[in-house]
Amino acid sequence: MGELGEPRDAGYSGFLVSYGFCLAVFGFNYLQSSLTMCRFLPLIPNLKKPAPYNAQAVETGKSASNHLLGLLEKTLESKTYLVGKSLTIADLFVAMYLARGMEWVLDADWRASHPNIIKYFNGITSIDQWKTVIPQMKMIEKETPNEDPYAQE
């Protein structure tokens, strides 16, 4: 590139096109991972001082999460990995969120109705590096009820 975006002949006519394509793919992947983070990060509670329990907010969050998981199920119909043909940080990021979901909310019935996500999840969690960090996955059989966890009995 010349001054301020002015194209310069690199000696190979396909170089600028290839370089531009790589930048476009990188930009798209960065945008997609940023959007994913923007969707999921607000769902992480403040663990030191949790917000007051709100059953409607939990149901709204569950509905939004199920919508996103439905999109993921459809996306994984034709893919082994989220980005490209090999494992990336995106796969580990999504698998970790799925692991937490399966520990508390995504029960046996949900797993049976989402075969593409389960195939994807099992593939990611079967690699040695994952097993080193998390040797055994905990998966619930029945969804945790939407009840106030701070209520005194």
Account of the protein in words:
The protein is mainly alpha-helical and 153 residues long. 56% of the residues lie in helices and 0% in strands. It is globular. The termini are far apart.
What are the salient characteristics of this protein?
153 residues, disordered N terminus, mainly alpha, 6 helices
User: Main beta sheet, described?
Assistant: none
Global mean pLDDT: 77
Structural class: mainly alpha
End-to-end Cα distance: 69 Å
In DSSP terms, counting alpha (H) and pi (I) runs of 4 or more, how many helices?
Answer: 6
Number of strands: 0
* Approximate helicity band: 55-70%
Beta content: under 5%
N-to-C SSE string, H for helix and E for strand: HHHHHH
General form = globular
Low-confidence stretches: 1-19
Radius of gyration: 21 Å
Please specify the SSE layout and strand pairing.
Blueprint: H1 15-40, H2 55-75, H3 89-104, H4 108-112, H5 115-125, H6 128-133
Helix pairs in contact: 3-5
What is this entry, summarized?
The chain is built from 6 helices and no strands. It is mainly alpha-helical. The longest helix is centred in the first third of the chain and has 26 residues, at 15-40.
